[in-house]
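WARN retry 2 of 3 for item q-0093 after timeout on previous attempt; input resubmitted unchanged.
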Amino acid sequence: MTFSLFMTKASAFLLSIFMTLVPYMGFELPVMKTKEADCQLNLEMISDIHIEAEFPFRTGFLKQALRAANKAPSKVDGIVVSGDLTNYADEPSLAKYYETITDYTDIPVITAAGNHDIGHAGDRNKTDITRNEALANVVKYQNAYAGTDNPSNYYSQEINGYKFIVIGDEVDGFDYDENGEKIPHEGGRWDGITMTEAQLEFLDSELAEGTKEGKPVFVVSHWALDGINGEDIIWDGSGIAEDEYPVREILEKYDNVFYISGHMHGGVRCTGIADAYDIPMAEQVNGVTYISLPSFGLVNQYGLPLCGRGAQLEVYGDKVIFRPMNYLTGTFYTNSACSFDLKKVGSVL
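OK item q-0093 returned
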Protein backbone atom coordinates (compact mmCIF):
# COMPACT_ATOMS: atom_id res chain seq x y z
CA MET A 1 0.00 0.00 0.00
CA THR A 2 1.41 3.42 -0.94
CA PHE A 3 1.71 6.17 1.68
CA SER A 4 -0.83 8.37 -0.15
CA LEU A 5 -3.38 5.54 -0.22
CA PHE A 6 -2.75 4.85 3.46
CA MET A 7 -3.39 8.51 4.30
CA THR A 8 -6.57 8.50 2.22
CA LYS A 9 -7.83 5.42 4.06
CA ALA A 10 -6.85 6.83 7.47
CA SER A 11 -8.47 10.21 6.80
CA ALA A 12 -11.67 8.62 5.49
CA PHE A 13 -11.83 6.31 8.50
CA LEU A 14 -11.44 9.06 11.10
CA LEU A 15 -13.63 11.64 9.41
CA SER A 16 -16.36 9.14 8.60
CA ILE A 17 -16.71 8.31 12.30
CA PHE A 18 -16.66 11.96 13.39
CA MET A 19 -19.02 13.36 10.76
CA THR A 20 -21.58 10.59 11.14
CA LEU A 21 -21.63 11.20 14.89
CA VAL A 22 -22.14 14.97 14.73
CA PRO A 23 -25.42 15.29 16.68
CA TYR A 24 -26.98 18.23 14.87
CA MET A 25 -26.70 16.52 11.50
CA GLY A 26 -26.89 12.87 12.40
CA PHE A 27 -29.81 11.65 14.48
CA GLU A 28 -33.59 11.33 14.68
CA LEU A 29 -35.70 10.22 17.60
CA PRO A 30 -35.71 6.43 18.10
CA VAL A 31 -38.97 5.60 16.34
CA MET A 32 -38.99 3.09 13.45
CA LYS A 33 -41.46 4.90 11.20
CA THR A 34 -41.44 5.42 7.45
CA LYS A 35 -40.45 8.86 6.25
CA GLU A 36 -43.75 9.43 4.45
CA ALA A 37 -47.26 8.04 4.87
CA ASP A 38 -47.87 6.48 1.43
CA CYS A 39 -45.08 3.85 1.59
CA GLN A 40 -45.79 0.87 -0.69
CA LEU A 41 -42.98 -1.40 0.56
CA ASN A 42 -41.08 -1.03 3.81
CA LEU A 43 -37.92 -3.13 4.24
CA GLU A 44 -35.52 -3.58 7.13
CA MET A 45 -32.05 -4.63 5.97
CA ILE A 46 -29.08 -6.06 7.86
CA SER A 47 -25.98 -8.06 6.97
CA ASP A 48 -23.07 -9.94 8.53
CA ILE A 49 -24.69 -11.28 11.69
CA HIS A 50 -21.90 -13.85 12.29
CA ILE A 51 -23.80 -16.03 14.76
CA GLU A 52 -21.85 -18.55 16.84
CA ALA A 53 -24.23 -20.93 18.58
CA GLU A 54 -22.10 -21.20 21.71
CA PHE A 55 -21.97 -17.41 22.19
CA PRO A 56 -25.50 -15.97 22.55
CA PHE A 57 -24.86 -12.23 22.30
CA ARG A 58 -25.02 -11.92 18.48
CA THR A 59 -28.18 -14.02 18.43
CA GLY A 60 -29.46 -11.60 21.07
CA PHE A 61 -28.74 -8.67 18.75
CA LEU A 62 -30.77 -10.37 16.02
CA LYS A 63 -33.67 -11.05 18.39
CA GLN A 64 -33.71 -7.40 19.43
CA ALA A 65 -33.81 -6.22 15.79
CA LEU A 66 -36.69 -8.59 15.05
CA ARG A 67 -38.59 -7.38 18.13
CA ALA A 68 -38.10 -3.78 17.00
CA ALA A 69 -39.43 -4.58 13.52
CA ASN A 70 -42.44 -6.35 15.03
CA LYS A 71 -43.31 -3.30 17.14
CA ALA A 72 -42.58 -0.60 14.54
CA PRO A 73 -45.35 2.03 14.22
CA SER A 74 -45.11 1.72 10.42
CA LYS A 75 -45.79 -1.79 9.11
CA VAL A 76 -42.65 -3.69 8.10
CA ASP A 77 -43.28 -5.75 4.95
CA GLY A 78 -40.02 -7.66 4.76
CA ILE A 79 -36.57 -8.14 6.27
CA VAL A 80 -33.46 -8.62 4.13
CA VAL A 81 -30.39 -10.38 5.55
CA SER A 82 -27.46 -10.12 3.18
CA GLY A 83 -25.18 -12.95 4.19
CA ASP A 84 -22.70 -14.14 6.80
CA LEU A 85 -25.43 -15.61 8.95
CA THR A 86 -22.75 -17.61 10.80
CA ASN A 87 -19.10 -17.08 11.58
CA TYR A 88 -17.67 -20.50 10.75
CA ALA A 89 -20.23 -22.30 8.55
CA ASP A 90 -21.19 -24.70 11.33
CA GLU A 91 -24.63 -26.29 11.28
CA PRO A 92 -25.58 -25.45 14.91
CA SER A 93 -25.08 -21.74 14.22
CA LEU A 94 -26.98 -21.95 10.93
CA ALA A 95 -29.82 -23.73 12.75
CA LYS A 96 -29.80 -20.99 15.41
CA TYR A 97 -30.20 -18.29 12.75
CA TYR A 98 -33.21 -19.97 11.13
CA GLU A 99 -34.71 -20.85 14.51
CA THR A 100 -34.49 -17.18 15.51
CA ILE A 101 -36.12 -15.73 12.39
CA THR A 102 -38.85 -18.36 12.67
CA ASP A 103 -39.59 -17.89 16.36
CA TYR A 104 -39.20 -14.13 16.74
CA THR A 105 -41.10 -12.68 13.80
CA ASP A 106 -43.85 -13.42 11.29
CA ILE A 107 -42.41 -10.85 8.88
CA PRO A 108 -41.02 -12.54 5.72
CA VAL A 109 -37.22 -12.75 5.82
CA ILE A 110 -35.20 -12.78 2.59
CA THR A 111 -31.89 -14.53 3.34
CA ALA A 112 -28.70 -14.66 1.28
CA ALA A 113 -25.74 -16.81 2.32
CA GLY A 114 -22.25 -15.32 2.58
CA ASN A 115 -18.65 -16.44 2.43
CA HIS A 116 -18.61 -17.34 6.13
CA ASP A 117 -21.63 -19.62 5.64
CA ILE A 118 -19.90 -21.70 2.97
CA GLY A 119 -16.33 -20.59 2.31
CA HIS A 120 -15.25 -20.70 5.96
CA ALA A 121 -16.18 -24.35 6.54
CA GLY A 122 -13.27 -25.72 8.55
CA ASP A 123 -11.91 -22.27 9.40
CA ARG A 124 -10.02 -22.31 12.72
CA ASN A 125 -10.99 -25.97 13.10
CA LYS A 126 -14.53 -25.00 14.08
CA THR A 127 -16.04 -27.56 11.68
CA ASP A 128 -14.84 -30.63 9.83
CA ILE A 129 -17.15 -30.35 6.81
CA THR A 130 -16.29 -29.49 3.24
CA ARG A 131 -17.53 -26.37 1.47
CA ASN A 132 -19.87 -28.54 -0.59
CA GLU A 133 -21.40 -29.88 2.61
CA ALA A 134 -21.74 -26.35 4.01
CA LEU A 135 -23.50 -25.32 0.80
CA ALA A 136 -25.89 -28.26 1.14
CA ASN A 137 -26.70 -27.16 4.70
CA VAL A 138 -27.51 -23.63 3.55
CA VAL A 139 -29.88 -24.92 0.86
CA LYS A 140 -31.51 -27.39 3.28
CA TYR A 141 -32.25 -24.83 5.99
CA GLN A 142 -33.49 -22.18 3.56
CA ASN A 143 -35.89 -24.70 1.99
CA ALA A 144 -37.17 -25.75 5.41
CA TYR A 145 -37.80 -22.11 6.36
CA ALA A 146 -39.47 -21.16 3.07
CA GLY A 147 -41.36 -24.41 2.53
CA THR A 148 -39.71 -24.90 -0.85
CA ASP A 149 -37.75 -27.62 -2.62
CA ASN A 150 -35.12 -25.51 -4.35
CA PRO A 151 -31.88 -27.40 -5.18
CA SER A 152 -29.75 -24.25 -5.55
CA ASN A 153 -28.24 -21.44 -3.48
CA TYR A 154 -30.22 -18.86 -5.46
CA TYR A 155 -33.94 -18.17 -5.63
CA SER A 156 -36.59 -15.48 -6.06
CA GLN A 157 -39.47 -14.43 -3.84
CA GLU A 158 -42.16 -11.74 -3.94
CA ILE A 159 -43.32 -9.41 -1.17
CA ASN A 160 -46.21 -7.03 -1.85
CA GLY A 161 -45.83 -7.75 -5.56
CA TYR A 162 -42.13 -6.75 -5.59
CA LYS A 163 -39.56 -9.31 -6.70
CA PHE A 164 -36.46 -10.21 -4.69
CA ILE A 165 -33.71 -12.21 -6.40
CA VAL A 166 -31.14 -13.85 -4.13
CA ILE A 167 -27.83 -14.91 -5.65
CA GLY A 168 -24.97 -16.79 -3.98
CA ASP A 169 -21.90 -18.97 -4.04
CA GLU A 170 -22.32 -22.34 -5.76
CA VAL A 171 -18.92 -23.87 -4.90
CA ASP A 172 -18.53 -24.53 -8.62
CA GLY A 173 -15.46 -26.56 -9.63
CA PHE A 174 -12.99 -28.63 -7.63
CA ASP A 175 -9.83 -28.53 -5.57
CA TYR A 176 -6.83 -30.62 -6.63
CA ASP A 177 -4.72 -32.97 -4.54
CA GLU A 178 -0.91 -33.30 -4.65
CA ASN A 179 -1.21 -35.60 -7.66
CA GLY A 180 -3.31 -33.15 -9.62
CA GLU A 181 -6.47 -35.21 -9.18
CA LYS A 182 -9.82 -33.45 -8.71
CA ILE A 183 -11.26 -33.66 -5.20
CA PRO A 184 -14.25 -31.95 -3.49
CA HIS A 185 -13.59 -28.53 -2.03
CA GLU A 186 -12.29 -28.96 1.49
CA GLY A 187 -12.57 -26.56 4.42
CA GLY A 188 -10.44 -23.52 5.08
CA ARG A 189 -10.96 -19.87 4.21
CA TRP A 190 -12.51 -18.92 0.92
CA ASP A 191 -13.96 -15.42 0.61
CA GLY A 192 -14.91 -15.37 -3.08
CA ILE A 193 -18.04 -16.36 -4.97
CA THR A 194 -18.48 -18.89 -7.77
CA MET A 195 -21.46 -18.71 -10.13
CA THR A 196 -22.58 -21.10 -12.86
CA GLU A 197 -24.07 -20.07 -16.19
CA ALA A 198 -27.40 -21.40 -14.92
CA GLN A 199 -27.40 -18.89 -12.06
CA LEU A 200 -26.49 -16.00 -14.36
CA GLU A 201 -29.29 -17.00 -16.74
CA PHE A 202 -31.67 -17.20 -13.78
CA LEU A 203 -30.70 -13.68 -12.69
CA ASP A 204 -31.28 -12.35 -16.21
CA SER A 205 -34.68 -14.00 -16.68
CA GLU A 206 -35.94 -13.02 -13.20
CA LEU A 207 -34.92 -9.39 -13.76
CA ALA A 208 -36.72 -9.36 -17.10
CA GLU A 209 -39.88 -10.69 -15.46
CA GLY A 210 -39.73 -8.47 -12.39
CA THR A 211 -39.09 -5.16 -14.15
CA LYS A 212 -41.51 -5.46 -17.07
CA GLU A 213 -44.21 -3.37 -15.34
CA GLY A 214 -41.78 -0.74 -14.09
CA LYS A 215 -41.60 -1.84 -10.47
CA PRO A 216 -38.22 -1.86 -8.74
CA VAL A 217 -36.57 -5.26 -8.35
CA PHE A 218 -34.17 -6.09 -5.54
CA VAL A 219 -31.14 -8.31 -6.07
CA VAL A 220 -29.69 -9.54 -2.77
CA SER A 221 -26.10 -10.75 -2.68
CA HIS A 222 -23.50 -10.94 0.04
CA TRP A 223 -20.82 -9.66 -2.33
CA ALA A 224 -20.55 -6.13 -3.68
CA LEU A 225 -19.31 -5.57 -7.23
CA ASP A 226 -15.75 -4.50 -7.86
CA GLY A 227 -15.33 -0.73 -7.52
CA ILE A 228 -18.89 -0.11 -6.30
CA ASN A 229 -19.78 1.45 -2.90
CA GLY A 230 -16.10 2.13 -2.24
CA GLU A 231 -15.17 -1.56 -2.46
CA ASP A 232 -11.74 -0.73 -3.91
CA ILE A 233 -10.95 1.47 -0.88
CA ILE A 234 -12.66 -0.38 1.97
CA TRP A 235 -11.73 -3.93 0.96
CA ASP A 236 -10.07 -4.11 -2.43
CA GLY A 237 -10.57 -7.47 -4.12
CA SER A 238 -13.64 -8.42 -2.10
CA GLY A 239 -16.18 -7.83 -4.86
CA ILE A 240 -17.50 -9.72 -7.88
CA ALA A 241 -15.07 -9.06 -10.74
CA GLU A 242 -16.57 -7.96 -14.07
CA ASP A 243 -14.11 -10.05 -16.06
CA GLU A 244 -15.17 -13.18 -14.15
CA TYR A 245 -18.96 -12.89 -13.94
CA PRO A 246 -21.08 -10.43 -16.01
CA VAL A 247 -23.41 -9.57 -13.12
CA ARG A 248 -23.09 -5.82 -13.68
CA GLU A 249 -23.78 -6.20 -17.40
CA ILE A 250 -26.96 -8.15 -16.63
CA LEU A 251 -28.16 -5.63 -14.03
CA GLU A 252 -27.68 -2.71 -16.40
CA LYS A 253 -30.04 -4.20 -18.99
CA TYR A 254 -33.06 -3.32 -16.85
CA ASP A 255 -34.63 -0.28 -15.18
CA ASN A 256 -35.18 0.26 -11.45
CA VAL A 257 -32.79 -2.45 -10.28
CA PHE A 258 -31.52 -2.26 -6.69
CA TYR A 259 -28.52 -4.38 -5.70
CA ILE A 260 -28.18 -4.99 -1.94
CA SER A 261 -24.92 -6.37 -0.54
CA GLY A 262 -22.87 -6.66 2.66
CA HIS A 263 -19.47 -8.33 3.18
CA MET A 264 -17.30 -5.19 3.39
CA HIS A 265 -18.13 -4.21 6.99
CA GLY A 266 -18.06 -0.62 5.80
CA GLY A 267 -20.06 0.91 8.64
CA VAL A 268 -22.64 3.71 8.48
CA ARG A 269 -21.03 6.54 6.51
CA CYS A 270 -22.52 10.01 6.07
CA THR A 271 -23.10 11.28 2.54
CA GLY A 272 -20.43 13.99 2.95
CA ILE A 273 -17.74 11.38 3.50
CA ALA A 274 -19.17 9.28 0.69
CA ASP A 275 -18.77 12.18 -1.74
CA ALA A 276 -15.33 13.22 -0.50
CA TYR A 277 -13.73 9.77 -0.58
CA ASP A 278 -15.96 7.88 -3.04
CA ILE A 279 -17.12 5.34 -0.43
CA PRO A 280 -20.92 5.72 -0.61
CA MET A 281 -23.27 3.36 1.18
CA ALA A 282 -25.74 3.87 -1.67
CA GLU A 283 -25.05 5.07 -5.20
CA GLN A 284 -26.49 4.88 -8.69
CA VAL A 285 -24.18 3.75 -11.50
CA ASN A 286 -25.41 3.39 -15.09
CA GLY A 287 -29.00 3.28 -13.86
CA VAL A 288 -28.49 0.57 -11.22
CA THR A 289 -28.73 1.52 -7.52
CA TYR A 290 -26.16 -0.22 -5.32
CA ILE A 291 -26.61 -0.43 -1.54
CA SER A 292 -23.83 -1.61 0.79
CA LEU A 293 -24.99 -2.61 4.26
CA PRO A 294 -22.82 -2.29 7.37
CA SER A 295 -22.00 -5.26 9.55
CA PHE A 296 -24.73 -5.97 12.10
CA GLY A 297 -22.93 -8.49 14.31
CA LEU A 298 -19.24 -7.54 14.10
CA VAL A 299 -17.41 -4.22 14.24
CA ASN A 300 -17.17 -2.13 11.07
CA GLN A 301 -14.43 -0.37 9.15
CA TYR A 302 -15.06 3.32 8.42
CA GLY A 303 -18.22 5.08 9.56
CA LEU A 304 -19.81 4.03 12.84
CA PRO A 305 -17.82 0.98 13.94
CA LEU A 306 -20.10 -0.70 16.47
CA CYS A 307 -22.73 -3.44 16.05
CA GLY A 308 -26.46 -3.22 15.43
CA ARG A 309 -26.35 -1.15 12.23
CA GLY A 310 -28.42 -1.67 9.10
CA ALA A 311 -30.84 0.35 7.00
CA GLN A 312 -34.51 0.86 6.23
CA LEU A 313 -35.58 0.99 2.58
CA GLU A 314 -38.92 2.58 1.67
CA VAL A 315 -40.54 2.27 -1.75
CA TYR A 316 -42.96 4.94 -2.96
CA GLY A 317 -44.69 5.44 -6.30
CA ASP A 318 -41.89 7.53 -7.77
CA LYS A 319 -38.85 7.01 -5.52
CA VAL A 320 -36.99 4.81 -3.06
CA ILE A 321 -35.62 6.21 0.20
CA PHE A 322 -32.57 4.67 1.90
CA ARG A 323 -32.23 5.39 5.65
CA PRO A 324 -29.36 3.86 7.67
CA MET A 325 -30.15 3.17 11.30
CA ASN A 326 -29.20 1.41 14.53
CA TYR A 327 -31.61 -1.47 15.19
CA LEU A 328 -30.58 -1.80 18.82
CA THR A 329 -31.71 1.77 19.57
CA GLY A 330 -34.12 2.46 16.68
CA THR A 331 -32.11 5.55 15.75
CA PHE A 332 -31.90 6.81 12.14
CA TYR A 333 -28.79 8.60 10.84
CA THR A 334 -30.23 11.44 8.79
CA ASN A 335 -26.93 12.61 7.33
CA SER A 336 -26.47 9.17 5.77
CA ALA A 337 -29.91 8.95 4.14
CA CYS A 338 -30.60 9.46 0.44
CA SER A 339 -33.37 9.13 -2.14
CA PHE A 340 -33.44 7.64 -5.66
CA ASP A 341 -36.06 8.45 -8.29
CA LEU A 342 -37.73 5.56 -10.09
CA LYS A 343 -37.80 5.52 -13.87
CA LYS A 344 -41.28 5.14 -15.34
CA VAL A 345 -41.89 2.48 -17.99
CA GLY A 346 -41.35 3.94 -21.45
CA SER A 347 -39.69 7.14 -20.20
CA VAL A 348 -36.40 8.42 -21.57
CA LEU A 349 -33.74 9.75 -19.22
